[in-house]
Every structure is written in structure tokens, then in C-alpha cells.
């Protein structure tokens, strides 16, 4: 059996409502609560989006992570955002990420798909394996935050090569 290195899919249930999950993915303030050190969005007119304002299609972003210096910046574009349960964004050289929120067995479910991943050796190692490992952690952290838990992220730049940054 041949492995498909061009995409992966992850799912996690979260005991909260879909609008809360969607807000966690689509505003600077909420993204910085569980995922990023800095999540800045720029509107099509070139103005920065307000911290509490939901992103929109064609916004661009600059993201920075805890545990990494200011020289590590992810840039991309919001490709789709329906305002309630679906979001898609470009993810640098690592392809595209889609986030779909739905109900399954009475619980809110997030399904994350990263696709259009380069299939050369670097793509397989850095983007397929590396991103999937990172998303597993961040999805678990989102679950922890939204279910009233603690923030599991490493916020110390001195601690390197840890799974929680």
C-alpha cells in the first residue's frame, strides 16, 4: 500500500458549541489563546483587522509561535471562511489547511485537512510529518482551552525542540 504524502486528516471532538470553535480559529484574540504568539490579519484594503474582528476571505496573515524567535513568521491567505463552520487558508510552502466543524454523535467535531503538500523528501518530512505532529498538539491544546483546561504551550524561547511549541 502506497502512503499519500500530499495530505493528511485529523479529527478531534470538543465539548463546546460550534460558534465558540469557529471564533477560536477566526479572530486574532482567540487564536493567540491556544495556537499562536501573534496572529495578525490584514484586510484587502491594507488595514490591519481588529483583534476581535473575524477574518474574511482574501485577508492575509502573519503568524508567530511561542518558543520561536521573531524571525520565524508564517504568512498566508484566507481562502475560504463561511462565518460558521468552515475555514481554509494557505499554509506557506506546506500546502493548504481546511477546518470543518460539524456535529458527530452529539459532540462538536473538528476535522482538519492539510493538502497540496509537496511530496518530495522535504515535503514528506517537514510538512507531512512535521505539520501533522504540530497539529495534533495544537488541536489537543484547543480542546484543553475550550473545555476549561490549561494552556499546554511552551512559551519560553529558551526551551527548544519540544512538542508544545
Features:
165 residues, alpha+beta, Alpha-D-Glucose-1,6-Bisphosphate, Chain A, domain 4
Helical segment tally? 3
CATH class descriptor: Alpha Beta
Q: What is the name of the CATH architecture?
A: 2-Layer Sandwich
Mean pLDDT: 96
Distance between the termini: 33 Å
**CATH superfamily caption:** START domain
Tell me the structural class: alpha+beta
Please explain how this structure is put together.
The chain has 165 residues and is of the alpha+beta class. Helices cover 25% and strands 29% of the residues. It has three helices and seven strands. A seven-stranded antiparallel β-sheet has the order 1-7-6-5-4-3-2. The chain is globular, with a radius of gyration of 15 Å. The model has no long low-confidence stretch (mean pLDDT 96).
Helices and strands, with pairings:
Blueprint: E1 8-14, H1 18-26, H2 28-34, E2 38-42, E3 60-64, E4 74-81, E5 86-90, E6 96-104, E7 107-115, H3 121-146
Antiparallel strand pairs: 1-7, 2-3, 3-4, 4-5, 5-6, 6-7
Helix pairs in contact: 1-2
Outline of the structure:
The chain is of the alpha+beta class. It has helices at 18-26, 28-34, 121-146; strands at residues 8-14, 38-42, 60-64, 74-81, 86-90, 96-104, 107-115.
Amino acid at each position: 500500500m502506497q502512503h499519500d504524502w500530499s495530505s493528511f486528516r485529523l479529527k478531534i471532538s470538543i465539548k463546546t458549541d460550534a460558534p465558540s470553535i469557529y471564533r477560536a480559529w477566526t479572530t486574532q484574540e482567540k487564536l493567540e489563546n491556544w495556537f499562536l504568539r501573534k496572529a495578525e490579519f490584514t484586510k484587502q484594503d491594507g488595514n490591519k483587522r481588529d483583534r476581535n474582528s473575524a477574518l474574511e476571505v482574501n485577508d492575509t496573515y502573519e503568524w508567530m509561535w511561542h518558543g520561536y524567535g521573531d524571525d520565524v513568521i508564517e504568512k498566508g491567505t484566507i481562502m475560504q471562511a463561511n462565518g460558521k463552520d468552515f475555514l481554509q487558508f494557505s499554509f506557506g510552502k506546506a500546502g493548504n489547511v481546511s477546518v470543518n466543524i460539524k456535529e458527530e454523535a452529539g459532540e462538536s467535531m473538528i476535522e482538519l485537512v492539510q493538502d497540496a503538500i509537496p511530496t518530495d523528501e522535504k515535503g514528506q518530512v517537514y510538512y507531512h510529518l512535521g505539520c501533522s505532529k504540530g497539529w495534533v498538539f495544537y488541536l489537543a491544546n484547543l480542546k484543553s482551552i475550550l473545555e476549561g483546561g490549561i494552556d499546554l504551550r511552551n512559551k519560553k524561547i529558551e526551551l527548544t525542540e519540544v512538542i508544545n511549541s
